[in-house]
Design goal:
The chain has 11 helices and 10 strands. The strands form 2 sheets. It has a 6-stranded mixed beta sheet, sandwiched between helices. The longest helix is centred in the last third of the chain and has 16 residues, at about 240-255. About 30% of the residues lie in helices and about 20% in strands. It has helices spanning about 15, 105-110, 140-145, 165-175, 180-190, 195-200, 210-225, 240-255, 270-275, 295-300, 305-310; strands at about 65-75, 80-90, 95-100, 120-130, 135, 150, 230-235, 260-265, 280-285, 285-290. The chain is globular. β9 (about 280-285) and β10 form a beta hairpin. With about 325 residues, it is an alpha/beta fold.
């Protein structure tokens, strides 16, 4: 079956743990339909597990967030970098995480796909829920989770290989072998990143020959190649010029329109106002305030938010 025509699957904790269980197919209320990711082999433990559909049960009145945290705290040794952050993210929305440098927003972002596990001495406390199921558990396969919760970093980091191979790299590692399937995944991912029209005639060219903005969009395409339903972005425009920044912003809104859940760290208040549906303000390791974007800028509730937006702190 053509990989681009399969129904999108959602991850369960049973998939991550490699255990069998109730596999009845249900759809969470509020979830949007996407083109699916292929059935792929989880190379982290050698088992062949397809991702199963998840449900919140028969009560359709209960809304389940795509991603959510409850009282998440992050410690580096004895230093508490983040304290008790609770926040929810939904399909088809962009959430901007803002605040001064060192306030904990990137630390929080890296907790959402368990990247902080890779940091020696780092401890993440609290609950992290993916489609309502706990993933901040030592037995959860973080590599399997990251197939569904992609990430784009501050600096473009393309591999030293062709444009095509950059995008095809992860699907190949996860078992997609057919050339037609790979061709379609590469084209779809590059279109998602608004890059296809610029590179379709030079896919064999080194990715390092692209401009900085094109490289960052290639990294977005690479992150989308496994068809995640969440995309985390850590200041993706900080190293780009205004024209490249606008292209990234258009890409972010396009992904949200497809139903992707986007969480983006930014220092650019104008960018947050242009791109996001919701803003969350971090200050001194605390999640101070969260609100829909227009209300956040027009009528901030917390004096610390007012001071930050007015430039009195930061």
């Amino acid at each position: 079956m053509n990989v681009m025509n399969r129904n999108r699957r959602q991850l369960t904790v049973l998939d991550l743990l490699g255990r069998s269980g109730d596999t009845r197919t249900r759809t969470p209320r509020g979830a949007r339909t996407h083109e699916s990711k292929p059935d792929v082999q989880d190379r982290t433990n050698g088992s062949d597990r397809s991702v199963q559909a998840w449900t919140n049960g028969s009560d359709r009145s209960v809304h389940v967030h795509t991603l959510a945290t409850k009282d998440v705290s992050v410690l580096y040794g004895d230093h508490r970098a983040l304290q008790g952050a609770s926040l929810a993210f939904d399909a088809g929305t962009v959430t901007a995480l803002i605040g001064p440098s060192g306030c904990g927003k990137s630390t929080y972002l890296r907790s959402l796909n368990l990247m902080n596990r890779e940091v020696p001495g780092c401890t993440v406390e609290g609950s992290i829920l993916y489609h309502g199921q706990e993933v901040n558990d030592g037995s959860v396969d973080s590599f399997a989770l990251r197939r569904h919760v992609g990430m784009v970093f501050q600096q473009p980091n393309p591999f030293r290989m062709s444009i095509y191979d950059n995008v095809a790299f992860a699907p190949k590692r996860h078992g997609v072998k057919g050339k037609q399937d790979l061709d379609e995944l590469v084209e779809k991912s590059l279109r998602d990143a608004a890059l296809w029209d610029e590179v379709k005639d030079k896919l064999a060219t080194s990715a390092l020959a692209l401009s900085g903005g094109q490289q960052q969009r290639l990294c977005i395409a690479r992150a989308m190649a496994l068809r995640p339903d969440v995309l985390l972005m850590d200041e993706p425009c900080s190293a780009l010029d205004p024209i490249a920044t606008l292209a990234i912003e258009d890409t972010v809104r396009s992904l949200a329109a497809q139903g992707i859940c986007v969480a983006m760290v930014t220092h650019n208040m104008q960018q947050a106002a242009r791109v996001s549906d919701k803003c969350a303000f971090f200050y001194l390791g605390e999640l101070v305030e969260t609100a829909p974007t227009q209300g956040f800028f027009d009528n901030p509730r917390d004096p610390r938010t007012q001071d930050y937006l007015s430039g009195r702190v930061g």
